[in-house]
Structure formats: C-alpha cells, structure tokens
Amino acid sequence: MADDKNTPTGGHGVEICLTEVSKRYPGQKLPAVESVSMTIPAGETVVLVGPSGSGKTTTMRMINRLIEPTAGKITIGGQDVLGLDPDKLRREIGYSIQQAGLFPHMTVGENVGMVPGLVGWDKKRIGERVDEMLDLVNLDPAEYRDRYPRQLSGGQQQRVGVARALAANPPVLLMDEPFGAVDPITRGVLQDELMRLQADLGKTIVFVTHDFDEAVKLGDRIAVLGERSKILQYDTPEAILANPADDTVAGFVGAGAALKQLNLRRVREIEVGQVPTATVDESPTVLKERLGSRRGAIGLVLDRRNRPLRWATAREAGAVSTLERAGRPVEDSVSLASTLQDALEAILTDDDGVAAVTGSRGEYVGVVDIDTVMNTIKALREEHADDEPTGDRS
Ligand SMILES: Nc1ncnc2c1ncn2[C@@H]1O[C@H](COP(=O)(O)OP(=O)(O)OP(=O)(O)O)[C@@H](O)[C@H]1O
Asked: Does 25 contact ligand 1 (Cβ within 6 A)?
C-alpha cells in the first residue's frame, strides 16, 4: 500500500513544529491564537481539545495555511510551511472535516481521486487508488464508487472524507471534528476504524474535537487548550487523567477520570491473582483440600481444556460427588485483552466480586478482584504524581 512516488517520506508521518504561532483576525482586538508552541511527534496522533472558541480550528488550519499566521513559525518535516506554495502544501496534507465536506456534484470516486488527479497521477492509477482507499475505509468500491454524496449515510460520507484525505498518501492528516456529525454508535465504529488504519499507516495526525472521551480514545497525546489556544496541558491521556494540570483541565476531563483510566488499561498489563483449581475429572476432595480451611475461599473448576467452568468453596466441593455440579457456573470471564473497565464490570456483577481471566483460547490464566483494580488505579496515580503537568513543548 505504500505509494511513495509523490511523497518524499513514503507517506509516513513527519514532525510538525509550531513556534510562537499567533493569529489575529482583521478587526479583532485580541488574537484568536496567541503565541502557541508545540511539537507534534512524527507518526503520532495529537488531539486538540478545548471549549468552543478556544482557537482549535484556527490553530489546525494554520498548519496547512488555510489560515495564514500573523506571527510565528511552523515547520513540517523540518520545512518551513510559510516558504512553500500553499496549494502544493495542501495537496501534501490530508484534510478531513465535519460533515465530510465532499463536493456534492462529484461522485464518491471523483471526490476520492481529486487530489491524486491534481498532483498528476494517470487515470488508471487514480482508479486503482480510489478502489484501494474505499476498501480501506470499509466501503465496497463497486457499490459506492459511482454514487453521489447525497446517496450515502452520514457515517458513509465521513468514511469517504477519510478516504479522500488519505488518497495521495500524505504524511500529515488534519482532522477537524471529522466524526462530530454522526450518532454515537457510528462514531465509535469510525473511531475504531481510524485507530486500525493509523496502526498500519503511522501518519502524523492532528485531530480537533470537543469530546474529551474521543481525545482519550484516539490520542497518543492530548493538548488541552484554553482561551486563545493557550496550552493548559500537553501530555498522554493517562497522565492528563491521572494528574490534570489545573482546575480548568480537571473540569474538562469531567467526572469519572479514574473510570476513564480503566479504559486505557488492559488486563494483560496487570498482575492477575490465582485461586486453587481442579479439573472436572478430579475428585471434589482434591479441590476441597486445595482450598483449605480459610473461610469463604473460592476455587475454580476447569473443564478438560482448562477453561473456567464453575466457582466453588470448600463447603460446596464437599457437598457433591462430582465437580461437574460443585458450586455455581462461571457466568462471565474476561480475557487478557479486555480493558480494566470490562473487568470491573464483571467483578461488580459477580456474587463473590471476582472475575476469571482467560487466555486467547479461553484457558484459565488467573483472576482479578476489586483490590487488583484499586491497586492499579493507585499505582497509576502515583506514577504520574510527580509529573510536571504543564508544558507547551513535547
Ligand atoms: N474569520 C474570522 N474572523 C474573525 N474572527 C474569527 C474568524 N474565525 C474565527 N474567529 C474567532 O476566533 C476564535 C477561535 O475560533 P476557532 O474556530 O478557531 O475556535 P474553535 O476552538 O475551533 O471553536 P469551535 O470548537 O466552536 O469550532 C473565536 O473567538 C472566533 O470567533
């Protein structure tokens, strides 16, 4: 899929550097963006979040010079953008906006193929690229290529918008609330798709949103902007959730920061506990002995392929002739790939407050309980406690 004929970097992300960039719109007393400095590392997704009017869009559009800065310097891959021809610059930067911004009188294929056409690709290559891009965003080319934007759902239009932004394989992608106009479910699907794409493509993405949860999900780093685009905090989602720089950022992070952190962690990253186990073919007394005399201690009966089958206490194991009927069935288990939020959900709905953890083939790996989750949150908080939260450079 690498198509490096027209792009010096082969489409891989490059660093973007803003140095004391300001924008004052004509006739305005105060600048909309005042002396912003930030480094966006190559191949990372940086999300700009902040209240309405904080200057997110202005900041982003100065990168591709849809808006001209009044002062400061912007470099992309070391090149000063103010020294480049703006039209050429914009062809090398993918741009996708809310409501997709497709040209209504052009078909899906013409929309996606527009920038490759502008940079001089031949017809055959453009055709192939259009189909490849539609495939990439999960739209069947044969079905959608010749439709007009109005013949698509909102979510499909957004997909075409992303396909169009990627078509000429630019190293940089600017996305201004690209999923702002679709329902929450479609939005989640589109976010997942973008994450999957980005894992393969490694573009440098600057993404603007109002939605802090979207920022946490998509961002390698988040820049929380205040008035005139002042950078209130610029850090990883984990660090911002664990240690917001000030009350304004904390307000923006919103309620439930600790719970949101659980969404960023996977069960495989924590140390799971162990309980006594026995397989269904073993005698109930074996499990009873392994559980010992500790009151309330619970063990797991595993099936012949080592998968969690039933929870049982020593007393319950002692009351049956075969472990097939001991205790109660395991209703819900979590896998190593589950988030800690999923694990917490399973723990909270379990009578004994414990969830079995399984590996990739469903085999028993261990257990998690509320203490494990609490300790993880505590550790996260301690890990980031000494962070120097503010910083307008990476
Ligand atoms: N063309 C313009 N002329 C004058 N002022 C403008 C212009 N465009 C934007 N502004 C002002 O600049 C400030 C920043 O606007 P901008 O659109 O960058 O903010 P934003 O954070 O992206 O907002 P939103 O989240 O509502 O889209 C606002 O106060 C806005 O009114």
From this structure: yes
